[in-house]
Amino acid sequence: MSQRGGFAGRGGYNRGNRGGGRGSSSGNTPGAFRGGRGAFNSSGSSGRGSGHNSSQSQSNGTPPYATQYSGGSRANGQEEEEIEDADIMIMDEMEDLPELALDDEINGSGDATATGPETLSTSSKWSRPPLTRDVNPNEDNLTFQQIDVDHYIDAVPLSCFKTFDGPTPVTRLFGVTAEGCSVLCHAHGFRPYFYIQAPTGFRADQLQAFMRALNARLLNEQTIARGLGNGASRSAVLEVNIVQKENMYGYSEQGKRDFIQVKLAQPRFMASAKRIVESGFSLLQNGPVVNFGRTFETNVDFEIRFMIDAKVFGCNWIELPAKKYRIRTSSRDVAGFLHSGAGPVSRCQIEVDCEWSQLISHPPDGEWSKVAPLRILSFDIECAGRKGIFPEAQYDPVIQIANMVQTLGETQPFIRNVFTLDTCDPIVGSEVLCFTTEEELLNRWSQFVQEVDPDIITGYNIQNFDIPYVVERADHLKLFAFPFIGRIRNRKSYIRNTNISSKQMGRRENKLCNIEGRVVFDLLQILLREYKLRSYTLNAVSYHFLQEQKEDVHHSIISQLQNGNEQTRRRLAVYCLKDALLPLRLIDKLMCLVNYMEMARVTGVPLTYLMSRGQQIKVVSQLLRRAAEEDYVMPSMQVEVGDEFTGATVLEPNPGYYDTPIATLDFASLYPSIMQAHNLCYTTLLRKGSEKTMNLGEHDFIKTPTGDQFVKKRIRKGLLPDILEGLLTARKKAKQDLAKETDPLRKKVLDGRQLALKISANSVYGFTGAQVGKLPCLEISGSVTAFGRLMIEKSKAYVEENFTVDKGYPTDAVVIYGDTDSVMIKFGAATVAETMKIGREAAKQISTTFESPIKLEFEKVYFPYLLISKKRYAGLYFTKPDVHDKMDCKGIETVRRDNCPLVANLIDTCLQKLLIHRNKEGAIKYAKEVISDLLCNRVDISQLIITKELSKTDKEYKGNQAHVELAHKMRKRDAGSAPNLGDRVPYVIVAGDKKDAAYKRSEDPIYILDNNIPIDTQYYLENQISKPLIRIFGPILGSEEKAESILLRGDHTRTKTIAISRTGGLAAFVKTRASCIQCKAVLNNEKEALCEHCKKNASSIYQGVVADLHGLEDKFAGMWVQCQQCQGSLHQDVICTNNDCTIYYMRKKAQKDLTEQEKIVRRFDYGDW
Amino acid sequence: MVSETAQAFSRVHSDFQNTSDRFVFTAVRNSFPQYAQLYFTRLEIMRGRVREQALQKWGRDIPIRTLSELTKDEPCIIIGTAYKEMELKPSVLKDLSENLDIATQPILPRYAGDHDTLLLEEETQRIVLVGNIDMREIVTGVTVAIMGTENEDGEFVVKDHCFAGMPPQPEYPTINTDCYVAFLSGLNLGGDVSSLATLDLCIESLTGQFGTAVQQRKMSKVTALVLAGNHIAPVKRDTDVSDQKTRYLTRHSSAGSIDGMQALDGVLMQLVACMNVFLMPGANDPGNYMLPQQSLHPCMLPLSNKSTGLRLVTNPFEAEFNGVKFLGTSGQNIGDIYKNCHIDEPLTAMEKTLTWTHIAPTAPDTLACYPFTDVDPFILEATPHVYFAGNQGAAGYRLVKGPTGQTVLLLSVPDFSKVPTLMLVNLKNLEVERITFKDAI
């Protein structure tokens, strides 16, 4: 205890030698906690009621939650609604807690909260590089890259920044300097505000009355009164002003008008203020109720508001000029008591205070597009589950935690270690830390995190598994010193459940954990957002992106390994380390972190928002930034459900197999360019009929194809076109810079930048069409799509009119298909080169007929081209005249996820044969062979596995579905290994009672292999293969009927092999007699291989049999060696049970088949040759 | 063309003893376990031998450590199995990759590349080797002792290394008369390459139907012919490159070997009447695929198998002729070593396998072999007098001396269809003669 206490030295800053640090910290944890409370009780001067002690509410299990994440949206009382396309709804399932408990209650002085342990410095390798010299606030500018912005309510504001009485919000910026030192900057003085349009006749001298009245109303609300504490002059409304602003929604001639800007004391008063204002109130007692109408910008998150006003972008560089900031030092000068509460509260190396208006924010361009050496911690835990039950934190111990720490931009982690429970053999290249109790392990790990002080925490599914598990486990074990893994020293981390649902991702239950100042960057969540994959297990993902399989240890084996000896535990540790390393490698390979940072910079939102929020916030942030510059304000819209507008339609396709080059002309960024060309924006929207009252002439506005009206550029330039222009110009620049850049990290950054800019430009349209969004405007989105259609139709008309035989072209050009933003044209030229020439010419000519910047570009030629139907086509893709770039397939089963791999492989190979090799006969022959192989049971089972996600509980599934049925069956067999909600269930349809529907005949592939269950090959032929096959062969063979008769009715469908089940039915009663290997005649001598008749051909029969053995041996050896290689050990048995791996089923089958084949071959040993 | 003076030579006989028992599966192979146990057993057997060599080489002052006992910067000796991580090594996984944009892996003459990593592996862990060890001259699976220190980065800096070395050799028998064992390999019958004319010439020479009296006299001293694999041409695969059916179909392959085996039967008919013919299976032949390959089944050779002259043997094949110890393979082991490192010369590779005390170290990694559990039959228990490998690019031979007086004749028997050469080894003095046949037409 002597060394620590509530406010001992500052975390992470004291690099002094503390030899006994480790022992002392774990030893006196409970004491420290008690000590913390003591400190609280004695500090009555903090001015807060004892009932609001956050440490108490935490320990009572009612977690006060607040980060920037919840702060704004909940306080507004506005639900984040599901948005039209690809967005995320967050429905908080928490019970109604007193609002106070919901907000951040970190006191600046740090003396009234639970006391977090001090950051220890035990290893020079773990700790951050020490400050090269002390920062002198009088001379040095302090520059750092911020990675997270949030806020807290400061109960006792520092006197120097104090402008109002009572608790007020302070914005926190966490960051890292270019040298790699961690920084926390408390930016003071920024307050939330919103606008009201001043009612007609409202005068400036009424402002005070307005403020008093609103304040009184607000203070009536209990939660607000409580939130303000017992200060002398309590005020919820801090300031009201009249400002000149303009409503951005709709064009009006009046220009700027009087708006009342209302500044509130705390962000979460916003919701009440909005409600009160919108329902109207009287300014004077008994006065008339004044109707203020709709509020403006009440739905803007506090952090976003701050970032817009301070011109801060996500992950950009912040500079604090000398003399404009103060450093927090642990001043023990007054009898060891912190002086005026200005001590450091965080574990950052540098902690400073400043006025928010003093910080200089550098836009992320040029020099400031660099990135700081961020520390990324990737970790993975292993728990010893009970047999058959997925680990639960109340019961199952954490036995290992593997950690990898890497600096952004480096290729290898500089810390690799694993914390193990019980002994473990050393692992070369990694540090092994063994512990005898789980308590020690967890506490030490928590200290490790504090010491390493990572900026980013990553891993695979850490958000929903690893982090909640360790936190809940520590809570269960009553490890009071554990949950301080965030950067705020006295702030506990706890777990909260939320439901996230979106059209894109379906419904998922998510857990959230507050780790202040560190960004939780869960790779799984990123992948779920960014990629469509067959499977999201780490194995499948690493195979997909790194072409590398990972050993998968089933959780039932984990306990066995743990209970073995140091060697088996070492084995587990190696596996665990690999799981910690892979996320880093994937992040590197996919550049997700860099891309996300660039997205944050481009759109101006904090990095964490990109992971927790939808697409809309990004557009809102940009829109508000531009709006603020031109004094527009954004109305807080009521969510209304409107009519669907017609989406992008396509030109009716002219299906067929085209053996001539087909040119494809694309509109570059069609939707953004339409919005730019026609000046479509909220600010230019002209209400129908209002053109007359506003005296606008015919040439002052346009009428879109949907009949909506927008004023032209020269009357008023819209915000959205302006934003888009900015984004597209910036993208051009980023691409130019990218071409010039040589440094690999900066190259990645620039590439991420241009990608982020492109995505952002395209998401603007979606934002206007999001009906339950922040600011839907169907006039805009409807007009955009209508224009899009028009463009496509115009292009078609132009091409077909101007590229004709009459005008000297090979044939009359025909547009065979048109998609959202492209047209496919048959020009009739024989060669790719010629087609390219005409295509370029056409693109140029047509573009001149469109308004700038709408531009049609020649992109590629398909030759040959197989057009099946809308959005379904395949072709060889040429951008150069000589060699094709790739085979491009759209909407065809090669990429669909809900089919078995056989379909994808079959279709893909057929297409390759048809398109690349131009071998129609070969393709047909191949398809027939596969069908024949399928019917004869020669197709590997891994090719027949269909995988579906168990995304709902049983009750929620309406129809009967195969994977649900199977999950049921498996639960009955073994509850432990049965799939759980959210798991992907692999299944195969097996033969059985034909009266049973197919879904009832789904079976687990492993069970099939183990029990020799026959597969329903007919099902695969009819329900999986036939449709896609006929679809692609239809156009080639003339008609679908013809394709069907050739492919599905031929001789090759006649031979069938029916395997016999070893289970069920009469299997138990059947006695098999030895029969001739060749003709199946019953043999007299059971030991022999062949009957007398077949013996004449013994040589050739044997050669066939032995050739199979030869092939199987080859396969067996290849696959098991591969597995050995994957697991990274030659001398240890492969224990991988990764059923996402193609080899998994194949190797098992090879093993079985080989044993069978060996028996057959050996029958030739008998007899006389 | 019969010799002028029709002289009758009688063929010499030799004592013959087949000592290949350890390569024979007497019973049905009932189980196909994983490969880990084979490596485990190999390391267990080899560790002692390598340790002995290490102690001899570096003395007893440097401690021998296991990987778990390593302390940074302490000089020590570690013993384990070498493992080479090769980027170019073909992978079943990549072959099966769904991503068809990745072109099917080309079959490379060599997997070893410049960016390989060499590791040393023990029962439970492995360590990266850097420093003074030439990766180009070592392959996966070899048991090796390494002297050096572990560095900061968890790598082991090699100062020196050593292998188990050539095992002892039985004494060479005294033989006073000329007596030859002949070697042929790679007849490649039934294929497109028609070497039939030269083969006929060869057969006629061997059987004494052709050549001068001197030649006939010499040929009469040939007591045995070893046919070291690849008697028939490889079974033609579908040449369509894009044909991926083999990727996932467990189809019944139709035997393409029937013509070839018929032709072989005919060839053997002529030979077995005159001498003992030892028929080893090779990579192309209709037998099992994994090493050790079992003797070819007599039912495929209905004509020649009636003769006692035909001996169907295993690959590898070990035997004693008049007390001279022969050991050899149909060449897969040497071919695979070529792929796994930068040793170009087959004879050098063969010599290496003797110093490694293991004739097929790359099995089971890139060379398929049966997953043995408690033995490793490819470990050399004794150094043979003649060590041969079939199906090599050239007809070569070299005498090498071991450290304890061993003398071994290395013999690379060429692929007859490419290099039509018969090799004769004289048991009296281990002299080698190469007889090359040219197509008379």
From TrEMBL, chain A:
<dbReference type="InterPro" id="IPR050240">
    <property type="entry name" value="DNA_pol_type-B"/>
</dbReference>
<dbReference type="GO" id="GO:0043625">
    <property type="term" value="C:delta DNA polymerase complex"/>
</dbReference>
<dbReference type="GO" id="GO:0008270">
    <property type="term" value="F:zinc ion binding"/>
</dbReference>
<feature type="domain" description="DNA polymerase delta/zeta catalytic subunit N-terminal">
    <location>
        <begin position="189"/>
        <end position="270"/>
    </location>
</feature>
<feature type="domain" description="DNA-directed DNA polymerase family B multifunctional">
    <location>
        <begin position="605"/>
        <end position="1036"/>
    </location>
</feature>
<feature type="compositionally biased region" description="Low complexity">
    <location>
        <begin position="39"/>
        <end position="61"/>
    </location>
</feature>
<dbReference type="GO" id="GO:0006287">
    <property type="term" value="P:base-excision repair, gap-filling"/>
</dbReference>
<dbReference type="InterPro" id="IPR012337">
    <property type="entry name" value="RNaseH-like_sf"/>
</dbReference>
<dbReference type="Pfam" id="PF00136">
    <property type="entry name" value="DNA_pol_B"/>
</dbReference>
<keyword id="KW-0004">4Fe-4S</keyword>
<dbReference type="InterPro" id="IPR036397">
    <property type="entry name" value="RNaseH_sf"/>
</dbReference>
<comment type="similarity">
    <text>Belongs to the DNA polymerase type-B family.</text>
</comment>
<dbReference type="InterPro" id="IPR006134">
    <property type="entry name" value="DNA-dir_DNA_pol_B_multi_dom"/>
</dbReference>
<dbReference type="GO" id="GO:0008296">
    <property type="term" value="F:3'-5'-DNA exonuclease activity"/>
</dbReference>
<dbReference type="GO" id="GO:0003887">
    <property type="term" value="F:DNA-directed DNA polymerase activity"/>
</dbReference>
<feature type="compositionally biased region" description="Polar residues">
    <location>
        <begin position="65"/>
        <end position="76"/>
    </location>
</feature>
<feature type="domain" description="DNA-directed DNA polymerase family B exonuclease">
    <location>
        <begin position="294"/>
        <end position="541"/>
    </location>
</feature>
<keyword id="KW-0540">Nuclease</keyword>
<dbReference type="InterPro" id="IPR042087">
    <property type="entry name" value="DNA_pol_B_thumb"/>
</dbReference>
<dbReference type="GO" id="GO:0045004">
    <property type="term" value="P:DNA replication proofreading"/>
</dbReference>
<keyword id="KW-0808">Transferase</keyword>
<dbReference type="InterPro" id="IPR006172">
    <property type="entry name" value="DNA-dir_DNA_pol_B"/>
</dbReference>
From TrEMBL, chain B:
<feature type="domain" description="DNA polymerase delta subunit OB-fold">
    <location>
        <begin position="34"/>
        <end position="160"/>
    </location>
</feature>
<protein>
    <submittedName>
        <fullName>DNA polymerase delta subunit 2</fullName>
    </submittedName>
</protein>
<dbReference type="Pfam" id="PF18018">
    <property type="entry name" value="DNA_pol_D_N"/>
</dbReference>
<dbReference type="InterPro" id="IPR040663">
    <property type="entry name" value="DNA_pol_D_N"/>
</dbReference>
<feature type="domain" description="DNA polymerase alpha/delta/epsilon subunit B">
    <location>
        <begin position="181"/>
        <end position="391"/>
    </location>
</feature>
<dbReference type="GO" id="GO:0003677">
    <property type="term" value="F:DNA binding"/>
</dbReference>
<dbReference type="InterPro" id="IPR024826">
    <property type="entry name" value="DNA_pol_delta/II_ssu"/>
</dbReference>
<keyword id="KW-0235">DNA replication</keyword>
<comment type="similarity">
    <text>Belongs to the DNA polymerase delta/II small subunit family.</text>
</comment>
<dbReference type="Pfam" id="PF04042">
    <property type="entry name" value="DNA_pol_E_B"/>
</dbReference>
<keyword id="KW-0539">Nucleus</keyword>
<dbReference type="InterPro" id="IPR041863">
    <property type="entry name" value="PolD2_C"/>
</dbReference>
<dbReference type="InterPro" id="IPR007185">
    <property type="entry name" value="DNA_pol_a/d/e_bsu"/>
</dbReference>
<dbReference type="GO" id="GO:0006271">
    <property type="term" value="P:DNA strand elongation involved in DNA replication"/>
</dbReference>
<dbReference type="GO" id="GO:0043625">
    <property type="term" value="C:delta DNA polymerase complex"/>
</dbReference>
